[in-house]
Amino acid sequence: MQKQQLSPEQCKEIYSERLLHCGNILTLHCPINQLVIHPNQAVMTLSETQKRLMAALIKNITCKRQLINIVWHENHRQVRDNNYHQLVFQLRNVFQRHNVPVRLIETIPHYGLRLNAASLEEAFNNPTQRSLPKSRAGHANTERGFATFRQRLKRFFRSFLALSLLVIV
Q1: Nearest to 73 by CA among 20, 4, 12
Q2: Which residues contact 58 (CB under 8 A, 6 or more apart)?
Q3: 3-state SS, residue 22
Q4: Average pLDDT, integer, range 46-72
Q5: Backbone torsions φ then ψ of 60, nearest 5 degrees
Q6: CA 84 to chain centre
Q7: Per-residue pLDDT tens for 96-120?
Q8: CA atoms in the 13 A half-sphere facing the CB of 34
Q9: How far apart are alpha carbons 17 and 67 in whole angstroms?
Q10: What's the rounded Cα separation, in Å, for the pair 22 and 7?
Q11: Do 38 and 27 meet the contact criterion of CB atoms below 8 Å apart?
């Protein structure tokens, strides 16, 4: 799509279809704000803004400004980047709660987002590639952080001990 601003009618047209499909991977039921991921039979209820974002992504709209225009067409000029990033974060959390890889929505640096259905197919065809559940992923990050902290603490005490010995001598 071109990078021009869409009218409110054009925005509504994007998410007003009854069903939107992305291959055999997912179906968005627009009237009831429901997303179905077929490989794992996950059924997710989305907020209105999450539904609008998914509809735009299914229709291959990837530019951040256009996504903001579509999702918040009523007041897109007052919407800040933080609102956009928060919406993407919340949608990825919905995916995570339903064991859907969060990389289904892929960030295009300095541009926007895209739907990455291929990664979803790959994840469900190869179960070892699925992302860790939130609790385990957080636990791994905490342990890694703690190990780094211990290493820094050891280095500090070695330096402190060496300095103390120099001062005493």
Answers
A1: 12
A2: 20, 21, 22, 26, 28, 115
A3: strand
A4: 93
A5: 65, 35
A6: 11
A7: 999 888 888 999 999 999 998 777 7
A8: 10
A9: 17
A10: 25
A11: yes
Q: Tell which residue, 62, 156, 152, 168, has the closest CA to residue 107.
A: 62
Instruction: State whether residue 2 is helix, strand or coil.
Output: coil
Q: Tell the burial category of 51 from Cβ atoms under 10 Å away from its Cβ (0-12, 13-18, 19+).
A: buried
What is the Cα–Cα distance from 118 to 48, expressed in whole angstroms?
25
- Asked whether 70 and 49 are in contact (CB, 8 A), the reply is no
**Inter-helix orientation angle 48-58/64-71, to 10°:** 140
pTM for the model stands at 0.69
State which H helix or E strand residue 69 sits in: helix 64-71
What lies within 8 Å, CB to CB, of 102 at 6+ separation is 92, 95, 96, 131
C-beta of residue 98 within 8 angstroms of C-beta of residue 126: no
Taking a C-beta distance cutoff of 8 angstroms, is the pair 26, 119 a contact? no
The two tokens of residue 133 are 């559940």
> Cβ neighbours of residue 31 under 8 Å, at least 6 residues apart?
18
